């Protein structure tokens, strides 16, 4: 299909393509709705930027000026970064934090306030209809468990992220189950329950993955894909069948602005059921027993990922 070929970066004209993309990026990130949606998603999360230029790409998660984690809590702050950086893609963690002021804050698991379960559905762009079917399978299962109003679906570029709003898990549940453990167990539990139906789609390139971990990032709405000239758009789960791949065109995108809706406590029963079946996040990190680097060692480790 012609439109798919046009989405790919032209490796034979790398310099010209990057310059063209820079102009497109500047125009896109000057739109008020784009700025508002990205900040709405990122507020409370630890953020990161993909910076892409002639010399290559790199992820930036810290500000070199003060070694603070990147935070996007206002449109004005986002604009200030856009003025000094050629930002292509914006990411936010699955976790929301009580505070993000220092380097240590994002390393402290006790500082996590809530966590957002996300099912990462990856596939070939050519099989995008099968990707939609997989998302519908996940959503249908969540709906069967009484979770409907707190789900939003995001086309990420070559696949789909099915998100469960972290506020659908009540504060009372988070007092009993750590947010990381709650998010991990729910994603793993649902993934296992829908595995057979996903397999029946008979698509070898299709994968539904649990990528929840202590620092996991996902793309923000209306940001550009890392290598395709398309934007991430949210989809109303109740209108999933009407989605067209043309909706991701940066010049005429179609985006669901009500993606942040939720019902407090809607996912509580599912979390308890999942946690009983799966248990907590399995890594040593979650238990607080990992070996801790000294702060100066951590800073040196992240030097290449700072502004």
Topology (elements, then pairings):
Blueprint: H1 2-7, H2 14-28, H3 32-42, E1 45-53, E2 56-60, E3 62-63, E4 68-69, H4 75-84, E5 87-97, E6 112-115, E7 118-122, H5 128-144, E8 151-155, E9 159-164, H6 171-176, H7 179-199, E10 207-209, E11 217-219, E12 233-235, H8 268-278, H9 295-301
Antiparallel strand pairs: 1-2, 1-5, 3-4, 5-6, 5-11, 7-9, 7-10, 8-9, 8-12
Write structural notes for this entry.
With about 300 residues, the protein is α+β, with helices and mostly antiparallel strands. It has a single domain, classed as DNA primase, PRIM domain (Alpha-Beta Complex). It is built from 9 helices and 12 strands. The strands form 3 sheets. Strands 1, 2, 5, 6 and 11 form a 5-stranded antiparallel sheet that branches. Strands 10-7-9-8-12 form a 5-stranded antiparallel sheet. A two-stranded antiparallel sheet has the order 3-4. Helix 7 (about 180-200) crosses helix 8. The protein starts with a helix and ends in a 6-residue tail after the last helix.
What attributes characterize this protein structure?
DNA primase, PRIM domain, 5-stranded antiparallel beta sheet, 12 strands, alpha+beta, 307 residues
Query: Architecture, according to CATH?
Result: Alpha-Beta Complex
If you consult CATH, what is the topology?
DNA primase, PRIM domain
Secondary-structure element string: HHHEEEEHEEEHEEHHEEEHH
- What's the CATH C level? Alpha Beta
Number of helical segments?
9
Terminal CA distance: 38 Å
| Rounded mean pLDDT score | 88
Strand runs, count: 12
The low-confidence parts are: 9-20, 286-293, 302-307
Q: Level of helix content?
A: 25-40%
CATH superfamily: DNA primase, PRIM domain
């Amino acid at each position: 299909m012609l439109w798919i070929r046009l989405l790919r970066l032209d490796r034979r004209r790398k310099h010209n393509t990057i310059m063209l993309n820079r102009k497109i990026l500047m125009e896109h990130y000057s739109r008020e709705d784009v700025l508002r949606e990205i900040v709405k998603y990122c507020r409370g999360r630890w953020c990161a930027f993909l910076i892409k230029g002639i010399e290559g790409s790199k992820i930036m998660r810290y500000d070199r000026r003060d070694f603070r984690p990147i935070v996007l809590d206002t449109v004005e702050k986002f604009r200030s970064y856009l003025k000094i950086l050629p930002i292509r893609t914006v990411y936010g963690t699955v976790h929301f934090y009580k505070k993000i002021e220092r380097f240590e804050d994002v390393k402290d698991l006790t500082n996590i306030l809530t966590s957002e379960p996300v099912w990462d559905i990856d596939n070939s762009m050519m099989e995008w209809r099968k990707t939609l079917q997989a998302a519908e399978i996940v959503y249908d299962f969540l709906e069967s468990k009484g979770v409907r109003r707190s789900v939003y679906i995001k086309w990420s570029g070559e696949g789909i992220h099915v998100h469960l709003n972290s506020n659908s898990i009540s504060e009372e549940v988070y007092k009993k189950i750590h947010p990381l453990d709650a998010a991990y167990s729910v994603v793993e539990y649902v993934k296992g329950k829908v595995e057979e139906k996903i397999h029946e789609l008979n698509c070898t390139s299709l994968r539904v993955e649990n990528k929840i971990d202590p620092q996991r990032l996902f793309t923000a709405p209306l940001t550009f894909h890392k290598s395709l000239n398309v934007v991430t758009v949210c989809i109303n789960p109740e209108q999933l069948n009407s989605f067209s791949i043309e909706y991701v065109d940066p010049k005429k995108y179609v985006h669901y602005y009500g993606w942040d809706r939720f019902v407090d406590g809607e996912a509580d029963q599912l979390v308890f059921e999942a946690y009983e079946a799966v248990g907590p996040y399995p890594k040593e990190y979650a238990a607080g027993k990992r070996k801790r680097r000294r702060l100066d060692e951590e800073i040196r480790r992240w030097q290449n990922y700072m502004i």
